[in-house]
Amino acid sequence: MTEVPLLGSKLEPPAPPPGLVERPRLGRVLDTGRQHPMTLVNAPPGWGKSVLLSWWTRATDLRVGWLGIEDGDDPRFWSYLRAVLISTGGFGGHALPSPDEMRHEVFLTRLAAVLADLCEPVCIVLDDFHRIRDPRVLKGLEYLVQHAGQALRVVIVTRGGPGPPLARLRLAGAVTVLEAAELSFTMAETVELLAALGLELPDRYTRILLRRTEGWPAGLRLAGLSMQGHHDPLRFVDGLTGDHETIAGYFTSEVLDGLDGGHLEILLCGSVLERINGSLANALTGRSDGERILAELWNAGAFLDPVGDRRSSYRYHHLLGEFLRGELARREPRRVPDLHRRAAAWYAARGSPPDALHHALLSLDWRMATDLLADHWPDLVVSGPDRPLCASDPAPPEGALRANPDLALACALNQQILGDQRGTDRYLRLAGDRTNEADDDRVTAIRLARSVAVGDVAATFSQASRLLAHREDGERARSVALSALGTAQLATGDLRAAERALDDGLAAAERAGLERVRAACLGRLAVTRALLGELHLAGQTAQDSLGFATTPTACGYAHLALAITHHEWGERDEAARYLDLTDSTGDQLLAALISIVRLWLLQAGESHAGADEVLRESRHQLTGWAVPRYIAHRFTAAEAALRTNFGDTGTAARLLADQAGASGGSAPLAVALARTQLRNGDLDAAMQTAAGAPNTELGVSLEAGVLEALAADRLGQDRHASTALEKTLQLADQERFRGVFIREGPAARRLLSAHLDSGTAYWPFVMDIVECAAERIDGPVAPLTERELTVLRYLQSVLTTEEIAAELHVSVNTVKTHLRHIYRKLTASRRREAVRKAREAQLL
User: Fold this and answer.
1) pTM of structure
2) 3-state helix, strand, coil in the chain (%, to 5)
3) Alpha-carbon distance 355 to 307, whole Å?
4) For residues 725, 728, 734 and 740, what is the CA-based torsion angle, rounded to 10 degrees?
5) 336-361 average pLDDT score
6) 3-class DSSP state for residue 67?
7) Strand (E) positions, 159-206?
8) Which of 191-205, 443-457, 557-571 has the highest mean pLDDT?
């Protein structure tokens, strides 16, 4: 039998492409990975894995060997591995054992022993490792890594999916991982790539290109090459889709070719959605193996990203989704409406009317769309999309809309859910030609939803009153109206009225069986109760809301209520965790309240880190709508308190002076003024201002009481201080308001300790506060999550926040959230300090 020779070409890294973009930030990650025995570089096709490793092997001072694996290499893998090791040189007199001359187990043992005796480590890159099918190969590699000590470093380059099963090594912290998020191009790298191709675009167009490709290196290079011959590169960027011939050709060869019928069918049919799971795949195709096929497609690197930890739902890469929808329309155009109809039925059966309505309109099934409107309009008007919807804008013929006002209303509601206010108004005008708006609950409810979303309080009151006056739809209309009315009252600070309206709306929604309206009422009710100081009831209401909530807005209000509750309990990390879960999703009131609470937590964090940036972002949330006086006062008070804490009492005083009646009428402004006066040493004024603050929300009243006691204590008025403190403790005890004391720091701690000695009726509560304050001061560094550790590693570089976001393929706000966590957990005030403390804690 003739021996098949080893091919030397497999032992050579690929040549760098023209216009290579060197990526030192990733080189640093790979260099850091040398501390671990194994590095996994795992991403779908075209993410620059081989190019990166080829560049790194030439740049590193480590001895590196390369093996490009092809299909069918399993039987000769160990022979090739031996040849790779020999190619690195440096073995001296050591003779590497041959896998052809001894049993496999003996070969591995001898090879591990030889490697363990090396004076300098050696690295092997195994490119396209996904082509290896024999599980014994991976098991043998793990054995080598385990027994070769510090001498062997293995870099596995593979294509998407979970990668090879390395559970034992991962648990031991012995694997460095680079995935698509890290391999995605940054803004700076995109500019460099385009420049290498002779292209220079305005930043706005470069960002558009980066966003549409999601940082996919091959997509960026293909787009750049196509632009070289295009007479109008800017127009090319505007029109770039997954259907472009070069990108479509890449997807055809790298994704579609080689797929069997079932895998291809599910991939194509699922493209009418942006997210898909096994059950939905089965509903679209009539199959029963959708979950298995989706998992196999992901394993094969088919540009599907798992959504959530369970990996039961997947998201299409933006360009792939566009390409597949175009391919589906070319191959089976008559099937597309039926797929949308099936999707609509699936969503309707699972209680997701927004998605059901969207796909019903795309299916051209006007009857289904109007039936959904008739059956679910109360739940629809309080909804946002449960998951991202395809960008298609269902647009029925104008003749059909004019002939069927209910269809126009269905379209108006669909656009309202998608946040398209112009589209909403356009369809409402079409419906108005044939509908008596004054008597139609649905028209009023859609207008009401629009006013709530944009924060138009006056319009909300007007439309809610009109809907309450209608009697056509009984409890359904009443629940929607009261939900909106309570929201408007919350915005104006009429919290007791808001609580009553939302409680009544909740009862009406329960009687009508409207779960989404119920969740909306519960979420807003939880925030109202948290602001009123009913902390335990607010926490329970928020948890009840999360049990029903399916929309980001409803969840946002519930998480915000929990953030306020834990803030008042003095549990800063828990408050920050819940605040980071909030999502305003275009709701102006929710966005403003989130900004206010973020300022509270920044004040409680005792750090200047990012304060100006947070303030800029927060002020941005107040633009574009008529901000209610209550919200404006709350925001000004929070900013003034923050600036006072940082010693900028001049700016704080000016902010408060700009608001009429700063010393009276508004409790938050009065308390903020008292805090500024106390910081400036104007003790008599501080004590009088705090004592005279209006008695409204409990949390604000408690803050006033603490400031009054602190001012009296510094004036030497011990009895006044003791009386004010005891009164404040009486109010705080039942709901366990610890935060208001803890946030005042050592001064309040000393005052409370002295109060224990002088005698108090709330001795256990005071002891609890003092102990919590001590834990906060002396507690250990909180553990960082895996994603926070990833961001932390990038902080060592010179990359900006925007560039880090682009590298990780997440939003800038997401990176900023991680930065807030990192600074808080490391008790750092700036980037360099965080890196230093991380190194001291051996996190880097």
Assistant:
1) 0.76
2) 65, 5, 30
3) 17
4) -90
5) 94
6) strand
7) 175-179
8) 557-571
